[in-house]
Amino acid sequence: MEKLGILIFLPVFLWALETVNLLKDHSFEKDSEVWVTSAGSKWAGIGEDSAIVNRHDSQSSYDGSFSASGDTRITPAWVGMGGFDSAMVVQSFANKKIEDLDSLIWSQKVVWKNDSRALTGLFVIGLFLDASSENWFQWGYSFESPDFDFGIIDRWQRVSSDMPDDTLWKEYARDLQKDLAASHDFQIPVDSFLLLNWGFWGSATFWYGQKVYWDDIRLMGYADYDVGVKEILSGDSLEAGTPYQPVARIKNFGSENADSFLVIAEIKDGASLIYVDTLPWSLDSDTEDTVTFADFDPPFTGPYNLTVRTFAEPDECDEDDELSKEIGHSSVSEVTLPDGLSLEVRSIASPLQVSYSLPYGESGTLTLYDATGRRVERMEVSHSGNTEFVDLASGTYFIKLEADGISVVEKAVVLR
Fold first, then answer.
1. Burial 14-31 (b: 16+ CB within 10 A, else e)
2. CATH code at 318?
3. pLDDT tens digits for 317-356?
């Protein structure tokens, strides 16, 4: 009875977790090594490959700048002898089983070879299950024309026999638990995920092939190790001179405890990193926590870009590792300035020359901040006039003029 209880409890425990995308670089945007490409041919064990496969193809994409692609349109020199040519993109897993999988969503488009007759082709999205067994290549979703039947596809499900030559992206989705439950033990290992394009010799004259693009692939499932950022809780409004404290909600999406990882907050002004705070953290499995970072003293009212990210090893999902948002507002644009309040920066050289004007003979303050928000110099001013900030190093600065609760900020770059 004790063993039976464990077997019943495990699937319930997994399904109580949130699913994550188990594929890394699923939109093919990074120059990562998680995808492996291969091309091969077969004719009685002999053949010269002509297929083209790309891990990052810039010619077309569904979501972002790149897609993966396999091209079997080029007719091999040995076509009259029979055989096939293949292009494949593969990503491997560690310690994954069928019970860890939930659903598969992907997008693809097809470009047919320009031939005088209706083409027959086959391309597959599938899983390598249990690489140690003879039937490791045993599950996939095949796309082929209605009159086509290829012997190996008895292990695959035909998803679509409607393959128009419209070169449009189409999205597909499958329930893996439903598709695999009837014929597979949930304890079978899942070794790899594959994208496969095949070209075929159809006669002594015709070669049937296509170019297939794949993008935005989401193999949703349950991770053993995965921490990520769920939400940035701190607001998006700030005021120069008033501290802003980044706050975020993080979660351990995995079924195993995360004993040691980093949570990092960064704030950028354009491309310049002007704030960073890194905190060590730990989380039990399937738990959340709130992280509060050190104060950021904004030298002006923005905009800035705040990014919160987690860094853990191992980590099975990159997709939830970071969130970003723009923070800041322009009080100058939201407030009608009194007549006579103005600030002008007239030079980018050192000394930095500034002219100012205050309304109705009022007095105020003129403050110089560096790019990190540190106050460099402050002076009392009144009426109107000119001043200089001398001996400044090259860099970005902010000059703030305040009077009677109203302020105006100008940005300056000093080049020496």
1. beebebbbbbbbbbbeee
2. 2.60.40.10
3. 888 999 999 898 644 344 445 566 788 887 677 788 898 8
